[in-house]
Amino acid sequence: MDNNEFEQLSSLWQSSEDKSLPHMEKLLKRHKRQSFILKLNILIELSAILAVSYLLLLSFLENMPLIKQAWIGFATLWGISLFILMSKSRLSSLKHLKSAQLSTSLEAHIKLIKNEIFRWELSIKATWIFAVAFGAFIGSECYFSTCANNDLLHIGLSFIVLLVAQVFFVRKGKTAQKVLRTLTD
Amino acid sequence: MVTLTKDSNKEKIIAQYWPQISRAASGYENRPALSDELAQEMALSVWRSLDGFSEQCSLNTYIYRVIHNTAIDHIRRHSRLSEDELDGATLCERVSPEASALQAQRQKQLLIAINKLPLSLRQVMLLKLEDLNNVEISDVLGISDTNVGIRLHRAKEQLSKLLKGLN
Questions:
Q1: Touching check for A25 and chain B: CB below 8 Å?
Q2: Do B52 and B129 reside in the same domain of the chain?
Q3: d(CA A169, CA A133)
Q4: Could you read off the pLDDT of B45-85 as tens digits, one per residue?
Q5: Residues 9..68 of B with a Cβ closer than 8 Å to A: which?
Q6: pTM (two decimals)
Q7: In a domain, B87, yes or no
Q8: Do B78 and B33 reside in the same domain of the chain?
Q9: Which of A5, B78, B86, B95 could form a disulfide with B104 if both were Cys (CB 3.0 to 4.6 A apart)?
Q10: Are residues B75 and B14 in the same domain?
Q11: Could you list the residue ranges that cross the membrane (chain A) (predicted)?
């Protein structure tokens, strides 16, 4: 392609019709709404952690059976560990998002997508651990006491939810890997 | 020195660069709805980034840098899965009624070909089509002049082939 041909292409490109100019006020409002939703999500997760911690405290105060105490203890520990690791990764992403770097450096985007991949991988591992522990808890419950049909239905549903979540995390993780490959190409 | 942080100044800058923003959005995103959204994201990023502009480079370079990095951010979040499945029918139809059919057809083909370029080549090509020189492109993308030259050469070659294939 010679210079003349390229100049023609350039004029052709620059003669394309523009999109309609956006209303900046509306865009700024939408941006504020999105950061509010992000903060709300963190607040919901924090409330869930507090609720499980309260349950753990209650299980000790009410002298619940050891298996139940162990299960609630595990769920609390699992939730808190996951929340801390996720929040650490999110904070690192937020730092990049807040810095001007994101608008000016490809490296910042690569770091963000790596953080995202870390969070999906963490979710996959955490879900496996949770499913195994849940299975162990159910197994011991059924072994030491009794399992009603109704309980089995709830257990089955819980495992289906965990499986669906796992498929979702795996798919999101694979998509993020694909994006990382595009960016580093 | 003009204060860029005033909202009225920012609006003027957005309006001034809107044609470039609009074209860059079409060059990075072939899905019409997402292309419009990307253009809005780019405008918002430019608006927000103007506060951080400290004349370390020209305003022109800075704005192009913001526009193109917003596109990367868009790719990161919306994962351009359709990149290899580009279909002429899904392209943004931005042809004015006055434009000749031939001109419209050529614009459409150019857009299809650009969207088919790999990201690294597409970036330099989009900037070159906006008449930026190699030094400016290297400033925008943060790569060396030599690298820009190599990428541009490859991009032109691939674009020629793609355009021939479309004719």
A1: no
A2: no
A3: 19
A4: 888 888 878 777 888 888 998 898 888 878 777 764 444 44
A5: 10-11, 14-15, 18-19, 22-23, 25-26, 35-36, 39-40, 43-45, 47-49, 52, 62, 65-66
A6: 0.61
A7: no
A8: yes
A9: B95
A10: yes
A11: 36-57, 69-86, 126-146, 152-170
